[in-house]
Automatic annotation (TrEMBL):
Lineage top rank: taxon: Bacteria
Source taxonomy: Bacteria, Bacillati, Actinomycetota, Actinomycetes, Pseudonocardiales
Protein name: DUF2961 domain-containing protein
Species: Amycolatopsis deserti
Spans annotated as Disordered: 21-42
Compositionally biased region (Gly residues): 28-39
Matching Pfam families: DUF2961 (PF11175)
InterPro entries, sorted: DUF2961
Amino acid sequence: MFDVTDLTRVTPVLDSRAVTFENPTGERGAGGRAGGGRKGAPSRVIEGGERVTLADLAGPGTIRHIWMTFPPDRPARMRAVYLEVRYGGLSYPSVSVPCLDFFGSPHGRPVAYASALTSMPEARGFNSYLPMAFGERIHIDLVNGNPDPIVLYFQIDYTLGESGAGRLHVGFRRENPTVSKRDFVVTDGLRGPGRFLGWVGGVRPIDGGQWYGEGEVKIYRDGDREFPTICGTGLEDYVGSAWGMGPHAGLYAGAPLEVSGRGPIPKYVGFYRWHVLDPVMFSTDLRVTLQQIGADRGGLVERVDDYCAAAFTVCERAQAVPPVDVAAAVADLE
């Protein structure tokens, strides 16, 4: 397999392409025709409720980079725009996730940060470098779940030729509010063999207390039932920090979003964790959860909060993820 990270390799075994509104098919020598080569179609108005195809490509190939932007707006309107990806002509999506969560920023609130796989320069440009391998075909849609139009700019960079063995799956979950003593489920139900790449999470603390993030992240794999194989020590520890979690960003973990509240607990928190150098592999099944535990006056307490997760998993075969429920995704974001 061609290693794109080896920057000394120049043999053109891969056919480099890009899809934009200037070249919606990605065909060779077909870009820039809309304005005779003078920037004729950089963007498009997406009407309220409209589903637009960003890419419908024959493979084999790999999506290498996705960039897009749409103008800043209220959080609920920003989060109502979502992506869906189908592989090989299947009727169900294997990716269904709000755009901002896919690019690393939950709660409909873009924030400037950079990680190894995603970034949001100046909180305006949305980038993903997560490889999305496809075989016979890939179909990528964007849906404007708002009643009003938005203006969309985008570019999808991809290569044709060799394709990886696994298919990227991204599923979105939100529990608002969580249930006391019942762990929030980050991902569950996908069958292996596969690899859990990580997740983008969000918290809207709605309980009181001094600290919301004492719960352990648990990773159940390959037959684990009552107890997991991998069990962390607390949310901020899982994200690579300690003794609380303020705004920060790193290559593989960070918490760039924090909207301050009146007390010691913020109103909104957004974080990410990528399992790149510490891979989480599974053969048959995977379940990832997070406990709803906090701290108050020096002791542990059970909590009820609002949690969301966009979970990224590569599986050998394409499978369905739950479609985005726009009403549930945008509730209580203002």
